[in-house]
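// run 5 | inverse folding | seed 20
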């Protein structure tokens, strides 16, 4: 599993710094270590409908695309899944209100602006509330702020806006058959 995650890590992240450190450690350790942080039911939270309210979970690390394996092993929520659940709720006449149940330190920047724009475009059609049911930070806050309102539980936390990137130290590879140059850019390129 080691090093297979580099493509994912080369993206900008809107996430709490300590959460990104934990994600990198979990990816380095592999699926067995990640199972410790998995949902108690062994899988990712699923959308539920209670009366006329559709509850869409936004929990764990936010990534552009997820699947069951990533959701179960690493506790991620895919923007692809949130979009599909939002579209389904908007098209369902028995849904009169949408609630985003958020407990996330944030995640990858990729796709967040598009999801937030889709939520904003849906405003006025059905009321939408984002509930900080634990943590709503960075990319999760960006998504939640697109709803009509944000509600914070008494123990909930919101905020932490910023972007991070992971730097992989590879200078030791220069003598292993490659000629690694130095590229530092500060200002115009």
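// decoded
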């Amino acid at each position: 599993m080691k090093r297979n995650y580099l493509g994912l890590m080369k993206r900008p992240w809107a996430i709490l710094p300590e959460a990104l450190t934990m994600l990198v450690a979990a990816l380095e350790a592999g699926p067995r270590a990640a199972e410790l942080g998995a949902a108690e039911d062994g899988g990712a939270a699923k959308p539920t409908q209670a009366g006329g309210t559709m509850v869409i979970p936004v929990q764990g690390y936010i990534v552009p695309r997820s699947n069951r394996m990533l959701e179960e092993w690493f506790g991620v929520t895919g923007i692809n899944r949130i979009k599909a659940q939002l579209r389904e709720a908007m098209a369902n006449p028995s849904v009169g209100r949408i609630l985003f149940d958020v407990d996330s330190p944030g995640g990858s920047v990729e796709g967040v602006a598009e999801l937030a724009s889709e939520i904003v475009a849906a405003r006025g059609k059905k009321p939408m509330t984002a509930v900080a049911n634990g943590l709503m930070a960075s990319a999760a806050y960006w998504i939640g702020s697109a709803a009509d309102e944000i509600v914070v539980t008494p123990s909930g936390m919101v905020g932490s806006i910023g972007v991070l990137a992971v730097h992989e130290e590879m200078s030791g590879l220069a003598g292993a058959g490659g000629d690694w140059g130095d590229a530092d850019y500060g200002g115009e390129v």
